[in-house]
Amino acid sequence: MAHIDAGKTTTTERILFYTGLTHKLGEVHDGTAIMDWMVQEQERGITITSAATTCFWKDTKINIIDTPGHVDFTVEVERSLRVLDGAIAIFCAVGGVEPQTETVWHQAEKYHVPRMAFVNKMDRTGADFLTVVKQMKDRLGANPVVMQLPIGAEDQFTGVVDLVRGKAYTYDMATMGVTVEEIPIPDEMADQVEEYRLALIEAAAEQDESLLERYLNEETLSEEEIITSLRKATLENLIQPVFCGAAFRNKGIQQLLDAVVDYLPSPLDVPPAEGTLKKGRNEEAVTVEADPDGPLVAFCFKVMTDPFVGQLNYVRVYGGTLNSGQQVLNVNNGKKERVGRILRMHANKREDVDACVAGNIVALVGMKQTVTGDSLGEARHPVQLTTIEFPIPVIAIAIEPKTKDDEQKMDAALQRLRAEDPTFNVNTDEESGQLLISGMGELHLDIICDRLRREFKVNANIGKPQVAYREAITQPVSQKTRHSRQSGGKGQFAEVAVSFEPMPIVPGEETFAFESKVKGGAIPKQYIEPVRKGIERGMGAGVLAGYPVVGLKATLTDGLAHEVDSSELAFEIAGSLCLREALTKGAPILLEPIMDLEVVTPEEYLGAVTADLNARGGQISGSDSRGMVQVVRGDVPLRAMFGYATDLRSRTQGRATFTMQFKTYAPCPQKLMREIVDRFGGSRFLK
Ligand code: GDP
After folding, report:
1. How far is the CA of 186 from the centre of ligand 1 (A)?
2. DSSP letter for each residue of 338-354
3. What is the rounded distance in angstroms from the CA atom of residue 559 to the CA atom of residue 576?
4. Is residue 48 lining ligand 1, measured as CB closer than 6 Å?
5. How far is the CA of 8 from the centre of ligand 1 (A)?
6. Does 12 contact ligand 1 (Cβ within 6 A)?
């Protein structure tokens, strides 16, 4: 994880290069063989765009998870952090701690993800390793332990001193840094090495009473003791080991990989996953051990379309073993799915595997009904892991293809994007017939439009972002409606009586409920579902301003059917008409999305941030300190938040960041409601 441009992609590429090399070619130190390998890699395109890539280093399997392509995309970061066990935070040796570094660092803190740091770009002018370490303390509230010292800096950066082993290394550029040579520690560094090696040993000793005692008695601690102790402290989030290098110059990567093996957790080192065992109506909180022989518990964290194999569902297996060809239960929707191929994604190939045991990450081919956030398991022990919470789309823009050709391309493109991204929606505005795409925020929609243009080559006119309002009734209404039409031949007849009442809106739950209390067959059974369907369809557009209706409970109480003229269609229409009439009588109002906002800001901007939020009509619910920063939380109406990203940046010199997601709907202020409703012509229904 990193601020944009810190070198995440370059570092990942180099990791895949070195691991691929040792794994495939063994100890080949022949420059031409290495170059061949690189060329092949490039021709086939290194799959670092894959959501998870598997590589091997020193008999350890490492899964690298891609953090978001876009800096401001916090939900993507959250979902990566949800399935990974440890993180490397990459810093630029010149830029140091940058705003996005602060955000991802604090998010990792929230999920208790153990971290180490890699100070990259040591070769750049102005590179300053120790200043970055100091910034980690001051600005992130981190507890960095210096594990290496750079030999030289800027264009004189040649290697590193490993403080645990007390050895210095340099890299042979003829072999793209594959050959690492041990060299004597430069004389002029002796004092500095001694100072930092002592600090490191003290950090290790602090974690362990018996080590501390031996250290105080001036006994020497072994390499292994130091590593074990620092590993424990890293896993407990007490320290963050810091390394350095220059990925672009092929320096420092092998040591970084060694450190992943030495200091970051294996799936057995992290606390078991928490979930809910769902047996019939009973729900029980359970934990899931990473045991290959236990019942299957897997979690889908990303869906991506792959140009070669179609849809890929990336899953992490938390418990048990997933086999190809196996039938699994999607615990979230109760549907059975057959697992087709199981793929392990490497840098340059996809490997078919027969099975995947707990602790692993793989991609599945052939899943039809599984989306991001779903848990897969077995019917005998269905466990649902906490899903990734996706906000309801609250912002919409109209989008109009420029030509017939664009229209076709756009349909296909939107479908693909929709499959990849559960927080994005496409629908048609009932009134204007315009196509609306909706998402979580301005930036989100910006990115989608950008991808449409660049990746899918769609030319479209794009409207201004607008708030996705909703409509709801505020009073219960009992409504009886007859739909009857006689036009020659067979007529249409249906009569329904429905009580409608307002229902609270809970994020993640249905906003419409239907129940039938029809007695004595007043309406034949087969006509009941069509009534429900008719009401639900009618809810697509309310009477005030054409916005969808939410928070409604409908109870079908009575009705009448005709032997010849009644049909499913007639009852569907009756349901829809009945709803419309009820909406006009139920004192309808407009609802607006209220967002849950969290701003992370350095202390000195706290006043400016809260004053601004108050001015936007926000309700601040609290603020506290997290590490070196203040976290302000509150509820704000979405309509007051357009352009907030830019505003906040200028108010805080780019130092504050925020996350915002849908919390609930609240009644629109009267004046605004009148304005919107007047424009649409629905004012006569307002109370
Ligand atoms: P990301 O946005 O974090 O993925 O960063 P990239 O890996 O795309 O790197 C951003 C820019 O920094 C690219 O132009 C890289 O070539 C450059 N870069 C990456 N690592 C180094 C390094 O070690 N030294 C120097 N001088 N440049 C680097």
Report:
1. 28
2. E---EEEE-SS-EEEES
3. 14
4. no
5. 7
6. no
Residue 121 near ligand 1, beta carbon < 6 Å: yes
Bridge partners of residue 282, in order along the sequence: 279
Give the C-alpha separation, 65 to 591, whole Å. Answer: 39
Q: Is 248 in the pocket of ligand 1 (CB under 6 A)?
A: yes
Backbone angles phi, psi at 150, to 5 degrees: -75, 145
**Mean pLDDT in each 10-residue stretch from start to end of the chain (687 residues)?**
82 85 45 45 42 88 73 62 91 84 82 94 94 93 96 94 95 83 95 95 88 85 93 95 94 96 95 88 89 95 77 93 95 92 83 94 91 90 80 81 92 83 76 80 81 88 89 96 84 95 81 91 91 93 90 96 91 96 96 88 92 94 77 91 87 82 87 91 87
User: In this structure, which residue's CA is closest to atom 25 in ligand 1?
Assistant: 121
Q: What is each CA distance from 90 to 10, 101, 249, 450, in whole angstroms?
A: 11, 8, 15, 27
CB 116 within 8 A of CB 210: no
Q: Is the CB of 253 under 6 A from ligand 1?
A: no
Alpha carbon separation from 312 to 85, 349, 370, 630 (Å, rounded): 22, 15, 10, 39
Q: Which stretches does DSSP call E strand in 121-165?
A: 144-146, 148-151, 159-162
User: What are the CA-CA distances from residue 17 to residues 61, 107, 122, 346 (Å)?
Assistant: 15, 29, 20, 11
| Bridge partners, 274 (sequence order) | 287
